[in-house]
Every structure is written in C-alpha cells, then in structure tokens.
Amino acid sequence: MRICVYCASSDGADPIYKETAFRLGATLAEAGATVVYGGGGKGLMAAVADGALSKGGEVIGIIPRFMIEVEWQHPGLANLEIVEDMRERKHRLLTGSDAVIALPGGSGTLEELFEAITLKRLALYFNPIILLNTKNFYAPLHRFMQQTVDERFMNREHVDMWSLVDDVDDVLPRIRATPRWHEDARSFAGVR
Ligand code: AMP
Prior knowledge:
- This is Cytokinin riboside 5'-monophosphate phosphoribohydrolase.
- GO terms for molecular function: AMP nucleosidase activity.
- It comes from Tahibacter aquaticus.
- It holds the Pfam family Lysine_decarbox.
- Keywords: Cytokinin biosynthesis, Hydrolase.
- The protein is of the alpha/beta class and 192 residues long.
- It has one domain: 3-Layer(aba) Sandwich (Rossmann fold), CATH 3.40.50.
- Helix content is 40%, strand content 16%.
- It has seven helices and seven strands, in the order βαβαβαβαβαβαβα.
- It has helices at 15-30, 43-54, 65-69, 86-94, 107-121, 139-150, 171-177, and strands spanning 2-6, 34-37, 59-64, 79-83, 99-102, 129-132, 163-165.
- The chain has a seven-stranded parallel beta sheet.
- Strand 3 (59-64), helix 3 and strand 4 (79-83) form a beta-alpha-beta unit.
- The longest helix is centred in the N-terminal third of the chain and has 16 residues, at 15-30.
- The mean pLDDT is 98.
- Adenosine monophosphate binds next to helix 5.
C-alpha cells in the first residue's frame, strides 16, 4: 500500500500532535505501507517520516526545488523526489496512492486535503481519505462541511468522501473498511 500523508510543517501547540505523527509513521511502516509525504524535515511531517524510518519503512518525500534551496527537506530520506512547484508536488503525492491520511496542520495541509476531497467528488480519486482527529482537531471542519450540505452546496452522499478517526490504531482498519468511492460520482457531483 502507498499511503499519502498530509500534515503540518510545525509541531503544533501540544506534544501529542508530534507523538501521534511519529506513531502513525511507525504503524504504517510496520504494516508494510510506503509513506508518501511532502518531504519536509520539520514539524509533523518530519515526525511521520521519522516514525516510519524507525521501523525500517519505505518513505518517499516529494518536495519542490525552491524548498530544497532553503534546505527544508528531511535529511534522512533515501527517496526524495524534487519537483518544480507545489502543483506538481500535490499531483505526485496523490497520484497512485491507495489512501490519504490528513493529520492536523495549517493552510498547506488543508489545501492538500481539500484538493483530494474535491477530486473525489469529481470521480478523479476513489480511495479512502482519513482525518486523524487528534484532540478533536478536525471536529469543527467536519461540522462546517456538514453545513455545506445543510445549505445545499453539497449532497448528503458527499460527507462519506472522508472520515474521522480518533486514534492511530483506528487508521488502517478504517482504510480497509472504507469502500471504493462511487464510479458514477459525477452523476451526483452537483447539488440535486
Ligand atoms: P502547513 O500545514 O500549513 O504547515 O503546510 C504544510 C505544507 O507547507 C507542506 O506542503 C509543506 O511542504 C509546506 N511548508 C511550509 N513551511 C514549511 C517549512 N518550513 N518546511 C517544510 N515545508 C513547509
């Protein structure tokens, strides 16, 4: 399995975020999954990579050239793919992934997450999108997305495009339990 992980370039306010990110990386590696992420050497990104590497896992970092120029990359990665810009990075992160996991993060994480959700809505991505809900971080976002349904900017089915899990141990079981997204998703992409 190739798992695309989106997460923060910062540690966050509470050490639990970093601990969780490390544990996720380790758990994915122990399950034999390849972690594909943004290649950063700081924050939760570094923690996910370090967790996976600590268990001998395969980690692929995909990073734009301008970030290499300011040395933002993780120094311990054997697999670092250098791309020209953020758009190519997002494309390469998602393409070929068997699932997406979003950890807490800022604008970068949210942008990546929303691209994946939007592509799923348009039947351009079909795999699970899991939000790791450490400290209930994603609960307000989940509620807000429910509001987009209530206000008829999305359909009821669309809230099934992603799901929240509270603990690292729930991530792989949730990925396995999530059915492939509807082949005919375009037929209900617009609001009815
Ligand atoms: P955020 O969730 O806002 O921290 O954004 C994560 C995204 O921003 C990722 O795509 C990162 O590669 C990028 N990013 C922003 N600042 C940094 C940094 N200092 N080091 C590495 N990546 C960064």
